[in-house]
Amino acid sequence: MQAQFKGKIALITGAGAGIGHAIAIEWGRRGGFAIVTDMVAEQARDTAAEIERAGGRAIHRSLDVKRLDQIRETFAGAIAEAGGLDVLFNVAGTNLMRNVEEMEDEEWYSIIDTNLTSVYRCSKIAVPEIRKRGGGAIVNTASIAGILAENRCAAYSASKGGVILLTRNMAMDFAPYGIRVNAICPGSTRTPRTESYLRKAPGQERAIADLAPMKRFAEPEEIARPAIFLASDEASYITGASLVVDGGLTAGFKLPLFDQL
Ligand SMILES: NC(=O)c1ccc[n+]([C@@H]2O[C@H](COP(=O)([O-])OP(=O)(O)OC[C@H]3O[C@@H](n4cnc5c(N)ncnc54)[C@H](O)[C@@H]3O)[C@@H](O)[C@H]2O)c1
Fold first, then answer.
1. Is residue 230 part of a domain?
2. Predicted confidence (pLDDT) at residue 1 exceeds the cutoff of 60
3. Which of 157, 170, 173, 247 has the fewest beta carbons under 10 Å from its own?
4. DSSP string, 124-146
5. What atom in ligand 1 is closest to the CA of residue 95?
6. Distance between CA 58 and CA 27 in Å, rounded?
7. Which residues are bridge partners to 174 per DSSP?
8. What CATH number corresponds to the domain at position 114?
9. pLDDT digits over 160-196, tens only?
């Protein structure tokens, strides 16, 4: 096991599955202490157990990022038990395919709440704790949907675009305290969420993969490693950045004509 993060403590939201799970596992594998949280308590417990089985250190908590009271209480208890907080990974998020005309008000607010307001809430509670340690990092999970629009993802795209700008705001506001704030923008990644979409439309997998020049989905670990890079001292002069990890999907567009000239 690499001991890169020995003595460092990170809290990860949405760590019961997918990208959050991969971040928690990689953080633990590299010697960091993981506070594993997820809305689904058993999933948080299973991730923490997986870290410990591999020789790492972790505690777990049930946490819904839509609830400020719960965030306050859970962060306070878990951070006291862990002995402090150096890094916050805001990962919990969800999606709903609706255009603006189709969307109900409560659906709009629910997506914005889970994906964007949660980043504000968790960061608000984490910042004073990270300041006590003399600095640290926050890594937010945006999306390429925060850079380019995706059809029928109105609230999702708006929330992820918001995460990118909130990341820049927090980077400015917290640089004086030694807190770097960055985001990752994953492309299509193989997680329980995307698997559930693909089960509903099995023929679509190839078409989605082919959108990226690399012509495949990312594995969650391929998103976790760049996220962890942003939290590490290797990224000591990086703040306010949104790191695109998308197999080239947003690099450009292909003109078939140009292959024929
Ligand atoms: N998978 C992709 O292709 C992809 C692409 C770009 C961005 N992202 C972003 O990455 C993040 C993780 O996505 P994923 O694909 O791993 O999702 P997933 O649905 O596979 O896993 C998400 C985890 O977050 C938890 N969660 C959901 N709502 C929560 C809440 N209110 N409070 C606490 N936990 C909650 C779930 O229980 C689950 O364990 C999300 O922010 C998502 O928008 C994913």
1. yes
2. no
3. 173
4. HHHHHHHHHTT-EEEEEE--GGG
5. 43
6. 10
7. none
8. 3.40.50.720
9. 999 999 999 999 999 999 999 999 999 999 999 999 9
Find the catalytic residue in 156, 177, 197, 237: 156
Which residue type occupies 175? A
Share of the chain above pLDDT 70, in %: 99
Ligand 1: which of 11, 12, 39 to mutate, judged by most atoms within 8 Å of the beta carbon?
39
The number of domains in the chain is 1
The per-residue pLDDT for range 87-131, each reduced to its tens digit, is: 999 999 999 999 999 999 999 999 999 999 999 999 999 999 999
Whether 212 is in a domain gets the answer yes
Length of the chain: 261
- Which domain covers residue 44, as residue numbers? 9-245
Q: Are 77 and 53 in contact (CB under 8 A)?
A: no
Q: Best mutation site among 38, 97, 121 for ligand 1, i.e. most ligand atoms within 8 A of its Cβ?
A: 38
Q: What is the pLDDT of residues 116-127, one digit of tens each?
A: 999 999 999 999
Rounded-to-integer distance, Cα 163 and Cα 120, Å:
9
The answer to whether residue 237 is catalytic is no
Amino acid at site 168: R
Relative orientation angle of helices 41-53 and 18-29, to the nearest 10 degrees = 30
Q: Is the CB of 19 under 6 A from ligand 1?
A: yes
Please tell me the distance between residue 255's alpha carbon and the centre of ligand 1 in angstroms.
33
Tell me how many degrees the CA angle 237-238-242 measures, rounded to the nearest 5: 175
Ligand 1 atom having least distance to the Cα of 63: 33
Judge whether 205 lies within some domain.
yes
